Amino acid sequence: MIVYHGTIYPIQAIDPKRFKKNKDFGLGFYTTSNVEQAKRFAQRLKRLESAPSCVVYEIEVKDHPLLKTKNFHGLAEDWLDYVVANRTGKQDYLTEDIIIGPVADDSVGATVSNYTANAYGEVGTKRAKQIALELLKLEVYTDQIVLKTDLALQQAEIKGVAWSDK
């Protein structure tokens, strides 16, 4: 599987020490199958950090017989529960090596943030989830593919630069 990672940092190897908590799918190395999505992320990071340049790396993730993958198919209740749990600092309850699903950015992220702020009712209630999921049905989203374990990271090989603004 070929994936892309947008960043402002040079990468020779993937460093788990750089992983951040409270992201959609918890700690991990975040990638996407969409080079344009990786490019937008890198450019946004460049603006936020006032960095001189940004880059998108192409990474090949090789198959391995012990590799377990969880695939969230669309903006559904199980996806919403998992994203909210991770964004609010709860214990990551999935044990798969790779998590695949929609990225909660832009308006998708705004809906998730409103949901966690009780804008649709108390978080976790059936009514609040229904409202959030109805709003999410209107959204266009891209994917994120997160390498969460040492086994997954060991299968990742940086192939080179797919795009750079230099």
Question: Which features characterize this protein?
Answer:
166 residues; 5 helices; alpha+beta
Q: If you average the pLDDT, what whole number results?
A: 95
Total number of strands: 7
* Main sheet strand line-up: 2-6-5-4
Task: Detail the poorly predicted runs.
Answer: none
Q: What is the overall silhouette?
A: globular
Helix-strand string: EEHEEHEHHEHE
Count of individual domains: 1
Q: Count up the helices.
A: 5
State the end-to-end distance: 27 Å
| Helicity, as a percent range | 25-40%
- Kindly estimate the percentage of residues that lie in beta strands according to DSSP: 15-25%
For the sheet with most strands, the description reads: 4 strands, mixed
**Secondary structural class:** alpha+beta
Radius of gyration: 16 Å
Concise overview:
This protein is of the alpha+beta class and 166 residues long. It has helices at 35-49, 77-87, 106-116, 126-136, 150-154; strands spanning 2-7, 29-31, 55-61, 69-71, 98-102, 143-147, 156-164.
